[in-house]
Write the structure tokens for this entry.
Amino acid sequence: MKPSSLFPSKPTPTCTALSVLPLLLLAFYALRHHGQHQQHHVSSRNADHFRRAFLSSAANATLAAYLRALTLRPHVAGTAPSLDAARLVREHLESLGLETHVARFAPLLSYPARVSLAARFPNGTSVDLPLTEPGLAPDAVVPYHAYSPSGSAAGARAVFVNYGREEDYAALAAAGAEVEGCVAVARRGDLSRGDVVRAAASKGVAAVLMYTEGDAAGLGRAAGGVERGTVMRGVGDPLSPGWAALEGGEALGLDDEEVSARFPKVPSLPVSAECAEMILASLGGPPAPPEWTETMGFKVRGVGPGPTALNFTYQGEKKVATIHNVFAVIRGLEEPDRYILLGNHRDAWTYGAVDPNSGTAALLDIARRYALMMQRGWNPRRSIILCSWDAEEFGMIGSTEWVEQNLMTLGSKAIAYLNVDCAVQGPGFFARATPQLDELLIEITKKVKDPDNKEATVYEMWTKANDGIDIQRLSGIDSDYAPFLQYAGIPSVDMYYGKDFPVYHTAYDTYDWMVNHGDPFFQRHVAAAGVWGLLALRLADDLILPFNYLNYTNQLRGYVDILNNLLDGNISVHPLTLSIQALASVAKEVELEAEKLSAEQTTGEPGVLRRRALNDRLMLAERGFLDADGLPYGQWFKHLVYGPSDYRSRTSFFPGIAEAIWRSARMRSGEGQASIQHEIWRVARAIQRVADVLGGRPL
């Protein structure tokens, strides 16, 4: 069928109907136009008053109403329902009196046209295997992998490859199981979808079926759920690497080597756990290793290949489509050219109640609360920009194209990027951040009530769950923080409630699932929005930016200790040690300078230029970790401390060094050591750049 037939037109709620929501909320809260707001300076004395007002204006029912409106229809990027969702968001922001605008881009997206899968079992029966979900909404896209190449495999034997890792293929080879020409059945694990398919292609596999295991925790996974997703390598529009995908602008061709390298070489499809079980339970061949089957909910006798044979067909279409990023801007009164950005993507594979519209609902509620504060006289010292991204599910495309388009402006003016993707997946607070923001994040969580324990704060329950604070880092490429941190060097945070929700990227990620399982009373939505909005308020209004680079220094020291043990003393990490010492010395001086300038403000001494100069150094220091040459396997990724490592190296810091260590095993001893030492020097120079910027070293 044609791609358009997967999004059939039928009488469904349109944006016109959805637009009733902002009007109802307007009547409920009696908000006035932004132009009627009284603008005046917000002193440090009444800043706490407005922060308390922000927290007290939370409303569970309002968040529920936002989420309900956002999830009435599936809205895959580049489709008419996705445009309706963009209009809904913009109309709501405009109804609050906020300054809004839309940025449009024209990237290459990918949709399914025809899919089929049939099995011939050992008893001679042939069955067309189900590829859609039971009860699938007629306007939801069928499960597929975006950017999978079209292809087919007729009569190919099935083989179980576990998680599709190198060690899994080694185990198959040791057991005498040949995979070449087979259809591999893989279960989702730590590897990205694309890495699983690329690894399979390197082994001569004809096609890949990928499934996600059942709901062991009983969190509401519907039978037959299928996890959609992208298999493209990297982020952003594949036709415009490093520049924005503007309509009529420069674009590479599909046959360009740089473009084709981002797509797998063999086709793949996601299937349900039930479909995978039908295939795997019928395989013969060598027995599956015990460690493969101990966590499986069904019995697997052998890994194959065969005797079950599969007929597999996937036909897709890659086409340029228009996407829409929506923005609301609250101009700072004193430093309008300094930006705090709050971002969440809006597009979804299906209804997207968790991913991403729990975050979109929180963003809209933050906008509502900020508008109420402005009505009462608040305006931020620095500008706040609310960002609703499109096409994140295809590879962070909306945010990446916008960052590439505005790189110079963001590089000189952006203070921090605060990301929330799935605001609520279930219980428990989780956060990732660049280390200079750790202390601020901790302070904020002490101000917000925990959604699951009325007698405690988010901080108290967070520390209890982890036996202390556990802030992860931003080395992955799984949400919209990636272009801000890893390409533009902007300090970033990513946060969410819950982990590994069972309806991820399925047609069952609905409002009903959220009400029944994820957050029945929308208290976690309130908490997520509270932490997110307060972070932005502190960054927008504090006289001195609340960045702590001593914490960054301690984190770097820990990385060097791990690296030194890994290298077993064979390669010198002394350049790193020296540069970290320099950064530590500067960070201590900056901390004293910040304390002094903050005290001067309380005695009436303005110190405006000195505060501005210090804040600029605090803001720009993170950019020092960028290297123009990028990482060894991907020039676009320029951050030398936090960035994606090749799946084979599996480390969360110093990605260039990690890659060099992995590659050194395949080089002659001297060459490998020289490669590692070079990457160590690159990181050391980057840390020294950060120290120079933070300390304001004169030229």
About this structure: The radius of gyration is 26 Å.
